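Reagents: none. Just compute today. Flagellar basal-body rod protein FlgG.
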Amino acid sequence: MLRGYYTAASGMLAQQRRQEALSNNIANAQTPGYKQDQATLKAFPELLLQRMEEQNVPTSRNLSRAMPTTIGSINSGVYVQENIPDFSQGDLQETGISTDMALVNGNLPDENGSLFFTLQNGEGEERLSRNGNFTVDGDGFLVSNQGFYVLDQADNPIQTNNMEFNVTEEGTVQIDGQNIPLGVAYAADANSLIKEGENVFRMDEGAGPAVDARAAAGVTFAVQQGMLEGSNVDSLRSMTDMMEAYRSFETNQRVLKAYDSSMEKAVNEIGRVR
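Predicted 3D structure written out:
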């Protein structure tokens, strides 16, 4: 009976964590470049039950030997293994603002591959993002909405000198007669990225750095100026999944109450000493 407590409780905790991920997705449904999280549920390792019994061996000494009989397996609950971002392309939204840019996937040779703008945070470390909602700071540098520098292909901040600029589909920033290739990184396994918040990712140390998308074999992309990539959150599907998670939570809650009622009866009635 105690195992039933833990199984039902683990189901409630798993659905609660799934609900949190879905709520975060819906809250960011209008965030440019946001990639929705998908909670993956996994069962705890199954236990194999066996009954130990003895069998007499027809010998002069009447020996016996252990004879385990397999009863079957039993599951001990479920948990959220991890939240995996979905890096599929979001819809493009026209803004007409020259500092806004949308990164459009072309050919990606790896199933889990994805493209990103390259940024530099306050500590000088490289970060990745799909959010092209850029602006120009007081010093004339192109920056993200977090205040991170937008990098060029040589990993240098892009200085606009507060001048108007154009961005070609190939990702070249044209400023006062200069052609500056915009930094675009390619991660062959985007699932190895670590989400830092505010729509920013970094590569896992064990996975190695992302590579220059222009140098990656078979990778093609386009950059659209004056447009933003919307989030890839399906609000209707997310609401449906939230209702499903809530119903599953309620079901496990009722099971837990049933176990609690049975335990109360066993302690207060069956186990009463008279």
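The mean pLDDT is 86.
Action item: order primers for follow-up constructs.
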